[in-house]
């Protein structure tokens, strides 16, 4: 008997092959094997009907041949791509490419790559979910429509080589809007009043002259000086002591967005790096129990946890830390993410016996860091809350009120595993009504800070909160924005380029929907409706397509050119036209004003000088070590005087 299992990645294929005997062949499609053509629109539109033209990509033609050959001799073919819409669509395209009936081929899914999970999946196959296939197809066609129609318009009106996208442009606007806030920001002066009471108790001003004071209320030096004088006019005493217990609940297990955020803030990993490492941990690594997937599927927006995983966690917590760390019932979490696919699981370790201590012998440094983060977060999420005693002391004189705060952890709870950054600040024994000496008081001048730019982690959080994109799109979106030089990353901050402002302004004025976060979010909800409720995917596309294409047609004639070009006073060596200096996303370059009829371009500035060796014009190379005349034809070069 021969069985064929088709997965997406070679690493996953290797792991699964290790679990199964000689009766199974496991082969990887290496991602999407069919897609819309790169060189043409690839969608036939007839009224409200959309017919895509899919092609097997050149780099996948050989793997398709291999799959076909194995399929000929297989008694049973299992489609085992990832359990998300992308994976569902890949399974459909594989079936189509090898000439099999996509409605009948068994489809198996699993959240983790372990022997038990694979065997369970083989025992309970299903068929392809065509609602999910249609949702993915609608997304792909929608993105092709936006990119294929809007990108050329941006190139025409601003500069060559620009691109736009449904999620990409909405994310770019968020970054640009933050930069606009920063540019418009005007600092406000304020004074922070701090006092030290013996013995060494530091406090911030709470009230002033009986009126509730906010931090920014002391806005002038005169006000600050008045407070300092009032502090010295009468003695202070303790007027109120209070304390209360506070419970801090553990954080939920990771989903894609929170994993990216936490890995960024605690490990310094970019979203792309996080997902690359997580992919390896999911697909399979060496462990003390053999080669297997170390974590569950890492592209998820669900906080669900399997019953077996909860049972294993509770048993470990009880044996390792004792019953006082174990809640009476498992902690259950629900996601607030829009359109979350609750059938999936949160990200967790597949085997709690593979502890970070043991994993250190098998994983590389970065893999271990991320695995430890996932392992500890999962275990901690099933532990008891920590308990702290919060202390509050009011110290007053006739005119001023200061507040002291203290904290003492009385039960560490989940901090036992996850660690605690907030250290104890224990106040000494104090009594209401007793006098207390003012040792020192100061007023420090400060200025309000502008809003912080987005980091990669905080942008992911923002995109998730607005419902823009899905777990699989966060990292690629940021990567695309930086690759196209629309955004640069400096000191972990996302800073938009000048061209980003131009693109955003043009889209805001003429294509509001494309950059409107609410519209983008509602479109995601419509795509969800296709997958979950079988909504008419072609009608959803049609409702967007026809108004959008009308705007494109209008824009070609009505949107004014915003191209930045400057004459440099030199003639084109090819056609005699004027040379202009332009700015592209790759930097400054020189081109002919008669483009596209004349294709002349150069990264070096053309000059009026002729090459003494061949008679061609010389270009000026401006380098750090000096300026040089350079001939592109014969390579003559000399220092510019």
Quick overview of this protein structure:
The chain has 19 helices and 27 strands. The protein is of the alpha+beta class and 641 residues long. Strand 18 and strand 19 form a beta hairpin.
Structural overview:
With about 650 residues, this protein is an alpha+beta fold. The strands form eight sheets. Strands 8, 9, 10, 11, 14, 15, 16 and 17 form an eight-stranded antiparallel β-sheet that branches. A four-stranded antiparallel β-sheet has the order 20-21-22-23, with no helix packed on it. Strand 26 and strand 27 (about 635-640) form a beta hairpin. Helix 6 packs across helix 16 (about 500-510) and helix 9 packs across helix 12 (about 365-380). The longest helix is centred in the first third of the chain and has 28 residues, at about 130-155. The termini are far apart.
Label this structure with key terms.
single chain, 641 residues, alpha+beta, eight-stranded antiparallel sheet, four-stranded antiparallel sheet, 19 helices, globular
